[in-house]
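Slack export, channel: ligand-projects

TW: morning all. Re-posting the request from yesterday since it got buried. We need the structure predicted with the small molecule present, not the apo form. The ligand is flavin-adenine dinucleotide; the SMILES is in the block with the sequence. No rush, but it would help planning for next week.
GE: picking it up
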Amino acid sequence: MNTLLNSAQQAQVDQFRSFARQHLTSVSEKLVSREACLKEFLQKLGQQGYLGLHVAKEYGGSGGTLLDVVLLVEALAEMEPGLGLTIGNHVAVIETIQKFGTEQQKSKYLPLLARGEQFATLAFSEESAGTDFQAVQATVRGASDLTLTASKRWVVTGDFAGLFLVLAKSEENKLVMVLVDRAADGAAFELLKDHKLMGLSSAYVNDVEFTDLPVNATNKIVGDGAEVALFAMDVAKVVLASAAIGLIDGAKGQAVGHAREREQFGTTIGQFQGVQWKLADLECDRVGARLLVQRAAWSLHGEPGLFRQYASMCKFFAARAARLHSGEALQIMGAAGLEANSLTARFYNDAKMMEVAEGTSEFQKMLLVKELNI
Ligand SMILES: Cc1cc2nc3c(=O)[nH]c(=O)nc-3n(C[C@H](O)[C@H](O)[C@H](O)COP(=O)(O)OP(=O)(O)OC[C@H]3O[C@@H](n4cnc5c(N)ncnc54)[C@H](O)[C@@H]3O)c2cc1C
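GE: finished. pasting the full token output, ligand included:
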């Protein structure tokens, strides 16, 4: 039973699961090996209306909330957790435009993003600016005509995103955020690196260089750059946390199936208390993490003053639980789980990366402690 969801939302979860079964089962492994095209899959989500779940109706969305998004991502991540990273960045840019964007930015970009005709991503990190994102060296010069120079690292979907939310410093050395529109400014882009990472491999992670890129002044985000950046990260991390829950669910399915079938010492291994307790721990953390994630998603509008606190808590808690329980699921599988491309091994690698992507676990604790005002 889920104490937060009403019957309409529960029906929506069933729809998301059925979509995942129908459209993701056959391609999830291919998305990871890149034999299937991620962009095409995302376009399918867009056509289905799933990238506009939380976009206001007047801008072509369904008028829902971040809670709808986390329900979707949990269902998809049970098969492919890396989608949580890609969708998280897209959703974070949408929410940033909804909260801080001008009317012009909203009407230009939200309909495209909601339909999946354009994909959005976050470009904050640099060689010497990771957790310390305020150390960015990217610059935005000018007042009416802006010029951006930036060397960005670890940009999800850097190779095909159409809209980049870029963190830079102004001439006054203040943090600012600009929207870089690839269709308008594509000529000055350089894709430096396509990272080959240990997990979350369906997400494409690139380094991107913008050199003396002209950016329309209307694409500047109004407001304090640091606050906008933190908000965008808060949204992205809630979505990634929901992928962590899907991952735990997927790992549970694998481990329970194996525990029911594998026989040792004359009985199935699921009859051993040592195995049962691993699964009991998993289930407690899975349900606990899900409640935290849903609470965080709800608080974006329902309790905005606590959004950062819940976002940090849920990301930290869910990523740690995913790492712990994907490891225990592997333990239950024994050697059968250790084949390099087995789903259980993939979940284990994906889970570790969730403790770093969208802000490390230590960063979440730093934010949490700040909110606690000790
Ligand atoms: C798969 C993936 C996708 C990503 N996607 C994007 C993206 O789309 N856009 C983007 O801009 N960035 C992206 N990133 C970058 C990500 O945001 C950074 O990796 C993250 O913020 C950490 O920065 P770092 O890796 O430089 O680690 P560092 O900041 O160098 O940290 C190294 C270690 O030191 C710890 N540490 C640092 N400072 C402190 C402190 N004050 N107290 C205690 N411990 C501390 C960290 O927690 C970590 O354990 C992505 C990263 C990954 C792995």
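GE: first-pass observations. The longest helix spans residues 225-261. The radius of gyration is 21 Å.
TW: perfect, thank you
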